[in-house]
């Protein structure tokens, strides 16, 4: 690093040198200069905690020599008097892509992005001894691809930045970033640190590999890479640049870019697994779950980009703007303040701003919304510097540091402040001319041949726009073009008559007090003359007071941050539900006029005439009371469903991508659902690991998880896994014959892996994919297998028998009725649809009697949804077993409650009404198997997350809140605020077959402004 | 389990009498009604909102002779069916479906409902309606006896026809050929992202809106030129698309326009009015927001299935359940429909759902019987159990709108006593027999 500090400053093509050494030859005579400057009489903000009045700053070359009050300036210094002005450290941005080539193309869609003309790419196409997956590219080093970009540097310097971290935003492991100054000239002399951090994301970027297609795949790939890196050092067979470099980068700071608070938590979880403390660059929505974000302990990098207001003038269009979007618009500017109040360490970045000029306006908005100026300054100087490990060089004005500082007219955060100069590495960059004072004001203007006029100069940078006014005869008001270059000004206007045509003035500042301009005038008839403008008074438009406005009133954060979220979550209560028809699902059967007592989230007692004690009493006379519905096959509440690029993806976990903000959680509570198994999709024979959740609306992803439940995994057979109806047809297998061998191969390898582990211990490469298969072999993970036709069902039963594993559940299993005896003999459960068929060839013989037949044969049988809509009335799907097969009512209702609980191994906790079990209870308006039944209340753990009456109140409150926000957006628009056309966020619905490309969507979202 | 098996054996015994029909894969259409039949003792759900308790339904030669409440059977020479304690409903009508135009969704060779092109007014569904599809029999056994196979796709998709579901061929099946022309109002996408969103170039909301305006302009031109053409005596060049449009302008064929958002519905209605047509609006998700407008224009709405998710995240979670009730209670003519073909067997339960969420049960029944018949222009001959109309109805042991009680025991189409067997019942029997035989 020393050599960098000692590097020369090469400016333009002339070679002006500070007294330093260089390897670069010089064409012509050397021009080595002392580079000594003294800035006197300034208010110097050393850092956020220390401000010196009437102080002096001495710099020599690119280094700060001294700073302090009462310093004497030695001879040989160029003195710049900064009386009345401020000096700040130049800002540091910890996250930019400054100086990098544009990233080529976004990741291509799954199977060719729908085009279908692209072959699958299974492994890296990059030449060289790199890793198998192009998304893991730690070998990328910014220091080798960076080059000074004068245009971008100028843009950032104008905002006030003096140094930045350069991140190559491409891939999941992205390699190292570098810190550079925004000085111009040779690439050799701008480096502050050649490796600031190792960088990561969940976005595979330009990788041409199919894998991973999903967020959970990105997570799994990164985890596997950590394990591979650990293994790499212990083996001799493989040379792998990616893994070698990855390992070496582990001692650097680690920066992880994510797209919001949910993924902040996801990154943190990976960090905890591998003992990493990531600095996380997020999206600015952290205020939505500030407690969870704080609990990670992560330092954050946060953008200052705020959404534009939506144009809501048309009420019909306004309907398409969601509560989330509206509240997000209002609350985004409060994010920094929320982080500060929570005590979270964070840096602010200009990255993501549509226009970097918005930086100051937005930081002031954040301050108006409660961010302190002190924190703001720290977050753009010392904190980013410390994140990057360059605190010894930049971030404050101290002796020995790089001479990166700003000269401003005022407090940096004050509205109307002007940044005059941004000195970078001791080199002066003028942002606004300092020697010309603020010329804004009203002037008496006299132009030969025209007469007396009034000139008004307003705008930014001490005057940028002008207007002309004439009173009395021929009174007129018009705008003028105004330009200023140092002391020179030119003004051009047209009064329409007397004279006709343009009046052009060109002159210079002749006196500072009173401000006076004098010069030449030219009229359109060709006559020339002189003009004089003399300062009269301040222009009326000038801001009078710059005191911070009181904190703006904003609506509260709601949980979840979407429709039907509330500021306070419903509480667990002691509840006595009286006089209902109670479906116990136990040997007691259906009890008439019975009571049920819920306490501490459990069922305390069931019986007649229970004493209420202190419990809240709910009269259920005429109503039916049941246990909550359990959906064995669901795809709600997840950020993706399929990791479909490979035939086996047992390394991915639905638990990594649970989305607690999905409105379908609430919608399904309204249908009496309390527990759902969130399954991976059916794009491949061995899918991902399942996640069982309870529908605790408003809680975080981790809190949704059903604690202490057995682990499951999704398998699949048939048309989807052989890609009959989508995909390129290039991925093995494409027949049911190949499907069999996929299982045989995987389980055979898993057995060998397990054996190797037991013999050689941890010298064996840890394989997350095989780990899950070994768990199956050891009865620590259980299979739910998507299946349709009898041949494939029979096949998997044989494979399982021959390789020694068990199949827990066949799901869909629409031809289960054809092999029910075999399933029964193997004690395999069935989770099917009530009446679906005909949607593809393998369901040509699916029949609605399937459930009944399997049930009658003695198989544990359930009806599931696989569909966010159907899950809202699974009770009625159960009712169809009466229509199609005369299943007795009690048994019919168990198809969606006790039976799925049994096949999920959670019937000890849920699935029936029994003292000691979880208080997951639904109150129905009628017999729950009937089409006329409505869920009136749904309790999970004794908490009424759904209440049909409360729902009406929530909707009403939501309307009021939206009306308030609409008014606020209209106000903002009428004041000239920018707006965007309403466009809702598409409701995200998944079923088994849903394929999408997480990375491509992320990239698209980013581009969708 | 024991009671189950007993039930099961009992039903086995019952079906032994009709063993003949199990022997064949296909189920033959029933012969013409030969004798006058009187059904007595039933609760007759007329379809027009009224109920007749302990009614007597007399029908001969395929037509309803009388519907009486006094329990009397006027003729001696009739076949009597005692339906005491049971319910009689008009045959349910599946509106705007691709039934018979598709057998397996995922098998392209079986897809016959979506033609290439934007302005396909000359396309007719009736010629592709497959009476040998295995699907209709699975609908009949739940009470769905008529349907409106409808072409889809493009802006103007073509003409639907109304068929009855027990026929040898499409000519046989047709109740009314070319009853309605179907089109889709051009819409601007309301959401960003979503399925298929990736890989597509980002299009700005403004550009999307412009594209919609261009599509509407094209549509308007098509209608204007077609209308002018229809007024020509002998056009120099025959245009088959415009020829087909003549029936729409003359009123022989209705115009169904699919539109979901409130703005699109208003635009679609006003578009129709401009050409002197009062369109039927299908889809109609946001119709509940513009009830007054729809009433002023006396618009018939074909509402899609209440078993659907709300359009917007912020919408009332139960809005799809309530939409039809809001509209029907305001006095609008509402028809309930379901997307798809095999799904149509759930049609009675859609009416049941609407009942649960605010509509009178008999009015809910009208939405899948008489209201549908009116929308298709067949209400003079069918849609309700009234004298002079086709004897197309079914007998259910219980409330047919609830899956818990729906039990269709007998069904008649134009007086013909149709076979209620279907592929599913056959497979049920085949395999249930296997397991019970193995148990013995």
Amount of helix of chain A: 10-25%
| SSE sequence of chain B, one letter per element | HHEEEEEEHEEHEEHHEHEHEHEHHHEEEH
Oligomer: heterodimer
Largest interface pair:
A-B, 91 and 69 residues
Structural class, from helix and strand content of chain B? alpha/beta
InterPro entries (chain A): Amidohydro-rel, Metal-dep_hydrolase_composite, Metal_Hydrolase, Metallo-dep_Hydrolase
GO molecular function (chain A): hydrolase activity, acting on carbon-nitrogen (but not peptide) bonds
Pfam family, one (chain A): Amidohydro_1
Signal peptide (chain A): 1-19
Ordered list of secondary-structure elements with their pairings:
The complex is a heterodimer of chains A (1009) and B (440).
Chain A: H1 2-5, E1 16-17, E2 31-32, E3 36-47, E4 50-60, E5 63-69, E6 78-81, E7 86-89, E8 91-96, H2 142-145, H3 150-159, E9 161-166, E10 173-181, E11 191-201, H4 215-232, H5 241-248, E12 254-257, H6 261-274, E13 278-281, H7 290-295, E14 299-303, E15 309-310, H8 315-318, H9 323-331, H10 335-341, E16 346-349, H11 358-368, H12 373-380, H13 382-387, E17 405-408, E18 419-424, E19 427-430, E20 441-447, E21 451-458, E22 465-470, E23 476-485, E24 488-494, E25 502-512, E26 515-523, E27 528-537, E28 575-583, E29 590-599, E30 602-607, E31 616-619, E32 624-627, E33 629-634, H14 663-669, E34 673-678, E35 686-689, E36 691-694, H15 701-704, E37 711-716, H16 736-760, H17 768-777, E38 781-787, H18 790-803, E39 809-812, H19 820-825, E40 829-832, H20 850-857, E41 861-863, H21 874-883, H22 889-894, H23 898-903, E42 921-924, E43 935-940, E44 943-947, H24 948-974, E45 979-980, E46 984-985, H25 998-1007
Parallel strand pairs in A: 1-2, 3-6, 3-7, 8-9, 11-12, 12-13, 13-14, 14-16, 15-45, 28-31, 28-32, 33-34, 37-38, 38-39, 39-40, 40-41
Antiparallel strand pairs in A: 3-4, 4-5, 7-17, 9-10, 10-11, 17-18, 18-19, 20-21, 20-27, 21-22, 22-23, 23-24, 24-25, 25-26, 26-27, 28-29, 29-30, 32-42, 34-36, 35-37, 42-43, 43-44
Helix pairs in contact in A: 4-5, 9-24, 16-17, 16-18
Chain B: H1 2-15, H2 19-22, E1 37-45, E2 51-60, E3 63-68, E4 79-82, E5 87-90, E6 92-97, H3 135-140, E7 144-149, E8 156-164, H4 170-173, E9 174-184, E10 191-192, H5 205-231, H6 240-250, E11 254-259, H7 262-274, E12 280-283, H8 291-296, E13 301-303, H9 319-329, E14 334-336, H10 347-356, H11 361-366, H12 370-376, E15 393-396, E16 408-413, E17 416-417, H13 423-439
Parallel strand pairs in B: 1-4, 1-5, 6-7, 9-11, 11-12, 12-13, 13-14
Antiparallel strand pairs in B: 1-2, 2-3, 5-15, 7-8, 8-9, 15-16, 16-17
Helix pairs in contact in B: 5-6, 9-10
Signal peptide (chain A): 1-19
Keywords (chain A): Hydrolase, Signal
GO molecular function (chain A): hydrolase activity, acting on carbon-nitrogen (but not peptide) bonds
């Amino acid at each position: 690093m020393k050599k960098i500090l000692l590097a020369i400053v090469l400016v333009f093509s002339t070679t002006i040198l500070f007294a330093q050494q260089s390897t670069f030859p010089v064409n012509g005579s050397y021009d080595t200069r002392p580079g000594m400057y003294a800035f006197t009489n300034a208010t110097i903000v050393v850092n956020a905690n220390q401000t010196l009045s009437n102080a002096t700053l001495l710099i020599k070359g690119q280094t700060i020599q001294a700073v302090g009050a009462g310093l004497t300036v030695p001879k040989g210094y160029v003195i710049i008097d900064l009386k009345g002005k401020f000096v700040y450290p130049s800002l540091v941005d910890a996250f930019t892509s400054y100086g990098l080539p544009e990233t080529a193309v976004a990741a291509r869609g799954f199977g060719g992005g729908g085009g279908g003309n692209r072959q699958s790419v299974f492994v890296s196409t990059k030449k060289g001894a790199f890793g198998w997956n192009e998304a893991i590219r730690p070998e990328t080093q910014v220091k080798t691809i960076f080059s000074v970009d004068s245009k971008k540097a100028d843009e950032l310097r104008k905002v006030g930045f003096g140094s930045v971290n350069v991140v190559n935003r491409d891939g999941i492991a992205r390699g190292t970033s570098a810190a550079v100054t925004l000085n111009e000239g040779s690439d050799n002399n701008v480096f502050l640190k050649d490796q600031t951090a190792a960088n990561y994301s969940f976005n595979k970027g330009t990788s041409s590999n199919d894998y991973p297609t999903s967020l959970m795949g990105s997570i799994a790939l990164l985890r596997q890479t950590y394990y591979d890196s650990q293994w790499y050092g212990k083996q001799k067979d493989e040379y792998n640049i990616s893994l070698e470099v990855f390992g070496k980068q582990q001692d650097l700071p680690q920066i992880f870019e994510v797209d919001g608070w949910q993924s902040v938590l996801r990154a943190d979880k990976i960090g905890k697994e591998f003992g990493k403390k990531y600095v996380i660059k997020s999206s600015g929505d952290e205020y939505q779950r500030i407690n969870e974000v704080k609990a990670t302990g992560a330092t954050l990098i946060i953008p200052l980009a705020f959404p534009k207001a939506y144009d809501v003038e048309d009420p019909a269009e306004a309907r398409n703007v969601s509560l989330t979007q509206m509240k997000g618009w209002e609350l985004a500017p409060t994010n920094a303040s929320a982080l500060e109040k929570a005590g979270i360490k964070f840096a602010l970045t200009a990255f993501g701003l549509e226009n970097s000029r918005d930086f100051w306006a937005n930081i002031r908005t954040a301050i108006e919304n409660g961010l302190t100026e002190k924190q703001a300054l720290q977050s753009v100087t010392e904190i980013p510097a410390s994140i990057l490990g360059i605190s010894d060089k930049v971030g404050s004005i101290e002796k020995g540091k790089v001479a990166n500082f700003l000269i401003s007219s005022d407090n940096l955060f004050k509205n109307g402040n002007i940044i005059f100069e941004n000195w970078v590495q001791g080199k002066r960059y003028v942002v606004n001319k300092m020697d010309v004072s603020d010329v804004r004001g009203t002037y008496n203007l006299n132009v030969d041949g025209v007469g007396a006029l009034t000139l008004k100069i307003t705008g930014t940078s001490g005057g940028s726009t002008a207007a002309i006014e004439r009173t009395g005869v021929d009174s007129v008001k018009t705008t003028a073009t105004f330009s200023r270059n140092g002391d020179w000004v030119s003004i051009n206007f047209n009064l329409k008559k007397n004279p006709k045509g343009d009046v052009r003035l060109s002159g210079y500042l002749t006196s500072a007090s009173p401000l006076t301009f004098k010069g030449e005038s030219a009229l359109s008839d060709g006559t020339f003359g002189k003009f004089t403008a003399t300062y009269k008074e301040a222009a009326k438009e000038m801001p009078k007071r710059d005191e911070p406005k009181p904190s703006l009133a904003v609506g509260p954060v709601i949980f979840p941050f979407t429709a039907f979220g509330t500021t306070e979550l419903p509480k667990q209560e002691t509840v006595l539900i009286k006089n209902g028809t109670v479906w116990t699902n136990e040997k007691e059967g259906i009890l008439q006029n019975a009571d049920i007592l819920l306490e501490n989230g459990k069922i305390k007692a069931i019986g007649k005439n229970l004493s209420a004690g202190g419990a809240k009493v709910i009269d259920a006379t005429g109503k039916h009371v049941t246990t909550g519905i359990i959906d064995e096959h669901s795809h709600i509440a997840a950020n993706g469903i399929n990791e479909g690029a490979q035939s086996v993806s047992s390394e991915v976990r639905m638990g990594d991508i649970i989305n607690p903000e999905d409105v379908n959680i609430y919608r399904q509570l309204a249908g009496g659902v309390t527990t759902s198994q969130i399954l991976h999709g059916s794009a491949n024979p061995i899918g991902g690991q399942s996640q069982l959740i309870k529908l605790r609306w408003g809680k975080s992803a981790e809190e949704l998880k059903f604690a202490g439940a057995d682990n499951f995994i999704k398998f699949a057979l048939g048309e989807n896994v052989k890609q009959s109806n989508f995909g390129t047809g290039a991925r093995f297998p494409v027949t049911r014959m190949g499907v069999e061998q996929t299982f045989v191969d995987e389980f055979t390898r898993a057995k060998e892996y397990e054996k190797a582990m037991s013999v050689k211990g941890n010298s064996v490469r840890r394989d997350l994919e095989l780990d899950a298969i070994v768990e199956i072999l050891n009865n620590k993970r259980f299979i739910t297998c998507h299946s349709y036709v009898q041949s494939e069902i029979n096949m998997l039963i044989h494979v399982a028998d021959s390789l020694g594993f068990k199949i827990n559940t066949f799901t869909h299993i629409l031809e289960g009725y054809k092999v029910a005896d075999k399933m029964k003999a193997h004690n395999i459960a069935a989770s099917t649809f009530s009446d679906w068929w005909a949607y593809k060839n393998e369901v040509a013989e699916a029949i609605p009697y399937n459930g009944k037949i399997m049930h009658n044969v003695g198989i544990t049988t359930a009806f599931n949804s696989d569909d966010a809509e159907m899950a809202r009335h699974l009770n009625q799907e159960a009712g169809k077993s009466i229509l199609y097969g005369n299943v007795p009512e009690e048994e019919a209702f168990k198809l969606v409650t006790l039976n799925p609980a049994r096949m999920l191994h959670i019937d000890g906790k849920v699935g029936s009404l029994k003292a000691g079990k979880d208080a997951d209870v639904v109150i129905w308006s009628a017999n729950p198997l009937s089409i006329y039944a409505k869920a009136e209340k749904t309790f999970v753990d004794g908490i009424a997350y759904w209440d049909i009456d409360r729902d009406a109140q929530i909707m009403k409150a939501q309307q009021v809140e939206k009306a308030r926000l609409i008014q606020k957006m209209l106000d903002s628009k009428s004041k000239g605020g920018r707006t965007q056309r309403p466009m809702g966020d598409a409701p995200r619905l998944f079923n088994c077959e849903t394929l999408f490309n997480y990375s491509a969507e992320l990239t698209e979202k980013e581009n969708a402004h | 389990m024991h009671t189950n098996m007993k039930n099961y054996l009992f039903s086995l015994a019952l079906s032994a009498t009709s063993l003949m029909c199990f022997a064949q894969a296909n189920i033959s259409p029933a012969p013409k009604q030969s004798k006058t039949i009187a059904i007595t003792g039933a609760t007759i759900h007329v379809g027009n909102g009224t109920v007749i308790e302990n009614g007597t339904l007399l029908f001969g030669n395929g037509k309803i002779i009388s519907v009486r409440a006094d329990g009397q059977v006027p003729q001696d020479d009739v076949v009597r069916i005692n339906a005491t304690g049971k319910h009689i409903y008009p045959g349910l009508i599946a509106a705007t479906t691709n039934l018979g135009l598709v057998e397996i969704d995922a098998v392209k060779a079986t897809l016959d409902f979506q033609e290439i092109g934007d302005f396909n007014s000359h396309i007719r569904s009736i010629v592709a309606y497959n009476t040998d599809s295995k699907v209709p029999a699975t609908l009949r056994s739940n009470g769905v006896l008529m349907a409106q196979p409808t072409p889809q796709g493009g802006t103007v998709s073509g003409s639907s026809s109304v068929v009855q579901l027990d026929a040898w061929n499409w000519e046989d099946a047709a109740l009314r050929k070319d009853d309605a022309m179907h089109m889709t109002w051009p819409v601007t996408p309301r959401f960003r992202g979503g399925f298929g969103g990736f890989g597509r170039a980002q299009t700005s909301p403004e550009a999307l809106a412009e594209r919609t305006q261009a599509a509407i302009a094209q549509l308007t031109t098509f209608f204007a030129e077609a209308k002018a053409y229809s007024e020509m005596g002998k056009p120099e060049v025959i245009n088959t698309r415009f020829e087909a449009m003549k029936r729409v302008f003359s009123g022989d064929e209705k115009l169904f326009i699919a539109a979901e958002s409130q703005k699109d519905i208003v635009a679609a209605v006003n578009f129709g009015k401009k050409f002197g047509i009062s369109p039927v609006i299908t889809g109609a998700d946001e119709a509940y927001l513009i009830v007054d407008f729809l009433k002023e224009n006396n618009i018939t709405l074909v509402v899609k299935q209440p078993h659907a998710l709300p359009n917007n995240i912020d919408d009332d979670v139960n809005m799809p359940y309530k939409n039809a009730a809001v509209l029907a209670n305001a006095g609008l003519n509402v028809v309930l429909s379901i997307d798809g073909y095999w799904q149509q067997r759930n049609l009675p339960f859609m009416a049941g759902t609407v009942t649960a969420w605010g509509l009178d049960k008999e009015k809910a029944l009208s939405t899948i019987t008489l209201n549908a018949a009116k929308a298709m222009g067949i209400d003079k001959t069918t849609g309700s159990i009234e004298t002079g109309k086709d004897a197309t109805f079914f007998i259910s042991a219980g409330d047919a709108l609830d899956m818990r009680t729906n039990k269709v025991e007998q069904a008649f189409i134009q007086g013909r006593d149709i076979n209620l067997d279907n592929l599913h019942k056959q497979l049920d029997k085949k395999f249930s027999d296997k397991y019970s035989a193995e148990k013995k």
